[in-house]
Write a structure and sequence with these properties.
Blueprint lengths: L2 H11 L1 H30 L3 H28 L5 H12 L4 H16 L7 E4 L2 E8 L3 E7 L8 E9 L8 E3 L6 E10 L5 H33 L10 E6 L4 E10 L3 H17 L29
Antiparallel strand pairs: 1-2, 1-5, 2-3, 3-4, 6-8, 7-8
Length: 304
């Protein structure tokens, strides 16, 4: 008897092991077919968005087929699937509650559309752009931390999908891809206040009008969709008098991806305009200024 015949005879005498081997072979076939389809789609679909969604759809179908296959093998009847899942969940719910929450979170994200790939969110104190969502984790390219403003840190972060049930999700781009930002300019009390205000208004008009116009239609949709009052989308300027200087506060709306570069442009152009004011507008600072040194009289004559 050769080794193949011996193995076949041994499997015949052990029906449980034979059934397990058949099950593993079927799972392997499903995995290989899914992998082949994913590679085929990756090579033949030119659009990144379509390619990504198609691969994820095939992956979900593969998971579903494996679950059905497992149910039919280990319960003997597909009708017993619900009962088997119920008994299994009751036994391991406490140990695998995070796993169940993560899977439920992925379904919730997909159905409710909490966020999607390409959007910028902040969740559980981590901010970044979403680059992948699977059945367990949301993967983000991190923003911030030791890097200032909205720059990438270079770290890729995986967050459990269970967090959508536990913490708030801040979305920078869903429905309204604009945010409000501010820029403060402190000026001396001796400065020409009207000239300073005109400088900031003129620069804001030149650099921010595009964002104001583009945001109007999107904000109108927000007002119609949610219970929210209308808001001022054009740049606004307010004046605050402090103990040390007059603070001019410019509040404006900007594309969430261009916040840092826009603030940099505003500061450069406002600074250039102030330099051309010939001293009529002077930027204040916390540097101490000695106005006058008191005279100190010292009598070197001593009583003899």
């Amino acid at each position: 008897m050769n080794s193949f015949e011996y193995l076949s005879d041994w499997l015949t005498k052990n029906p449980i092991i034979l059934s397990l081997v058949k099950y593993l072979l079927w799972v392997l076939i499903v995995v290989l077919v899914i992998r082949f389809i994913r590679r085929f789609l990756k090579k033949n679909l030119p659009d990144n968005t379509t390619r990504y969604k198609s691969q994820k759809g095939v992956e979900i179908v593969g998971y579903f087929l494996i679950v059905i296959l497992s149910a039919s093998y280990f319960t003997g009847n597909i009708k017993d699937f619900t009962l088997a899942i119920g008994l299994f969940s009751a036994g391991v719910a406490f140990a695998l509650q995070e796993l169940f929450l993560a899977v439920a979170g992925s379904v919730y994200i997909f159905i409710v559309k909490v966020y999607k790939v390409g959007e910028r969110i902040e969740i559980n104190g981590i901010k970044g752009d979403i680059i992948d969502i699977d059945s367990m984790y949301t993967t983000m390219m991190e923003i911030g931390e030791w890097v200032s403003s909205d720059n990438y840190s270079g770290r890729i972060v995986k967050i459990s999908n269970a967090f959508v049930f536990k913490v708030p999700v801040y979305n920078y781009s869903r429905d309204f891809p604009f945010i409000w930002d501010e820029f403060d300019l402190p000026v001396h009390y001796e400065s020409d206040l009207e000239m300073a205000k005109n400088i900031m208004k003129q620069v804001a008009l030149e650099e921010l009008s595009e964002f104001s116009e583009k945001s109007k239609a999107r904000w109108k949709n927000i007002v119609n969709k949610y219970y929210i009052e209308d808001a001022e989308l054009a740049p606004t300027l307010s004046v605050t008098m402090t103990d040390n200087w007059i603070r001019l506060n410019l509040r404006y709306i900007v594309d969430y991806k261009k916040r840092r570069v826009t603030k940099n442009i505003l500061q450069e152009k406002i600074n250039a305009a102030i330099r051309k004011s010939e001293g009529k507008v002077v930027v204040a600072s916390t540097t101490m200024e000695i106005i006058k040194i008191p005279k100190i009289g010292i009598d070197l004559k001593k009583d003899s």
